[in-house]
Amino acid sequence: MKRRSFVRLGAAVPAAAWLPAARAQSLPGWNKAAFDAKALTDALKALGGSGPSVESAEVVLDAPEIAENGAAVRMSLRSGLPQTTQIALYIAKNPHPLIAVFDLPAGTEAAATLNVKMAQTTPVYALARVGDRWFHASRNVQVTIGGCGV
């Protein structure tokens, strides 16, 4: 393969892999009710949960106490609970609080790391689903410079 063809192919693949939010919302499996929910209990109910989440030491949220820039806050979540089928990130005071939900095939490590925008100081929840129950770890993250909506 010629260098020029290789470079052209390399530029096309990331562009095809990027999926605008409007298009993602039209895909089968998009849970509009969960991502539009403003309360944690409503989001969990829309995701098929049976009741409120329970705090667990087996769910770990790595997030800064103080985010110096709300435009890019790095967070990691993981679950040590056996048979975790989903993990999710919920940021209470964001315009769309449910940030991400990851479906986990059997045998997959229940962990994710992502950068998020935060509008203001707020509680953040790492969530793990086992069966129809949700478990969580939480932390209050203080935002010093606005990101989301600023």
How are the SSEs ordered, and which strands pair?
Layout lengths: L2 H15 L3 H4 L7 H5 L3 H7 L7 E2 L3 E4 L3 E2 L5 E7 L4 E8 L6 E6 L7 E6 L5 E9 L2 E11 L7
Parallel strand pairs: 1-9, 3-9
Antiparallel strand pairs: 2-4, 4-7, 5-6, 5-8, 8-9
At a glance:
By secondary structure, the protein is an alpha+beta fold.
What does this structure look like?
With 150 residues, this protein is α+β, with helices and mostly antiparallel strands. It has a single domain, classed as Immunoglobulin-like. It contains 4 helices and 9 strands; from the N terminus they run H-H-H-H-E-E-E-E-E-E-E-E-E. A hairpin with a 2-residue loop joins strand 8 (122-130) and strand 9 (133-143). The longest helix has 15 residues, at 3-17. The radius of gyration is 17 Å and the shape is globular. The chain starts with a helix and ends in a 7-residue tail after the last strand. The model is unreliable at 5-19 (pLDDT under 50).
